[in-house]
Every structure is written in C-alpha cells, then in structure tokens.
Amino acid sequence: MEQSSSEKQIRIRKQFDSFCKTILKNEMIDYERARSYRLKHEVSFSELTEGELEQLKTDDEYIVESEMFRVLDYDIEVKDELIGEALKYLPEKKRNVILLSFFMDMSDTEIAKHMNLVRSTIHHHRVSSLQALKKIMEGIRNGEIK
C-alpha cells in the first residue's frame, strides 16, 4: 500500500524533528561536559591570590642600546651600554678574546684553536684586556673618555 504525499511529508517532518532533537541533545551533553571540565580545571584570574598572580607574571626586557660584535662566525650582543662602549676602545684581537671568553664561555684553549694562537697568548690578552677595560670604563664614567 502506497502512502499519500501528505503522509510522506508528515513522516519526513517527524524524522527531521527527531534528528534535530537528537543533535541538540548531544550538543547539550557536549557543552555540559566541557563546562564541567572547565569548572574543575580552570580558575578565573579574579579568584587567584596575589602570590599565584606573581607566579604568572613576566617582565619584558627591552634593550634600548646594545652593541653587536661579530667575532669569527658568532654575532655577540653586549647588552650593557658601558661595557659595549668600552669594548670598542680595545684592539680587535683583545676584544675578540674577551667576547669569546666571557660571552661565549670558551676556554683559553678553545679560543686559541679558533684564532690560531698559543693558549698562553690568549691568557695574556685576556688578563691585559680586563685591566685595560677597567681603566676605559672608569674613564667613560668620569667623562674623561667619550
């Protein structure tokens, strides 16, 4: 027995209605599950104590002036303005020894290999450069060197 056109339409509407209700019910279940998870695992910022907020805090550091030095194949950034300025007054070899030693954490032996020099020469350059840097930095602070 064949259904009439109006009966088919009613049956299709009921099926569609049932389908929509199922979809909405499942969406509600998913929403409630996600909401429950958030309530269990998330906390509003307003509910945090000062100590907890301090742990989440981060400070950005913006370097107004920094000096970049190219030593061998390394770009070395010196963030301290006074040190960067003082390093410019050193001869290139001595400046390179200081930069590799203190900014790249290389040993005298490693620096000697890279620069094709003897380790004792590197040691001498480092010691004399530190003494010269101290004098240069004092001169810059006192306004004697510009």
Q: How much helix, percentage-wise, in residues?
A: 55-70%
Oligomer: single chain
Average pLDDT rating: 88
Order of neighbouring strands in the sheet with most strands: 1-2
**Secondary structure tally: strands:** 2
Instruction: Give the low-pLDDT segments.
Output: none
What's the overall geometry? elongated
Report the total helices.
6
The sequence of SSEs as H and E is HHEEHHHH
- Biggest sheet descriptor: 2 strands, antiparallel
For the terminal residues, how far apart are their CA atoms? 106 Å
Q: Tell me the β content.
A: 5-15%
Structural class: mainly alpha
Radius of gyration: 36 Å
Mind sketching the topology for me?
Layout: H1 5-41, H2 50-56, E1 67-71, E2 74-78, H3 81-88, H4 92-103, H5 108-115, H6 119-142
Antiparallel strand pairs: 1-2
Description:
This protein has 146 residues and is mainly alpha-helical. It is built from six helices and two strands, in the order ααββαααα. 11% of the residues are buried. The protein has a two-stranded antiparallel ribbon with strand order 1-2. The chain starts with a helix and ends with a helix.
Observed structural traits:
146 residues, mainly alpha, two-stranded antiparallel sheet, 6 helices
Structure summarized in a few sentences:
By secondary structure, the chain is mainly alpha-helical. The protein is built from six helices and two strands. Strands 1-2 form a two-stranded antiparallel ribbon.
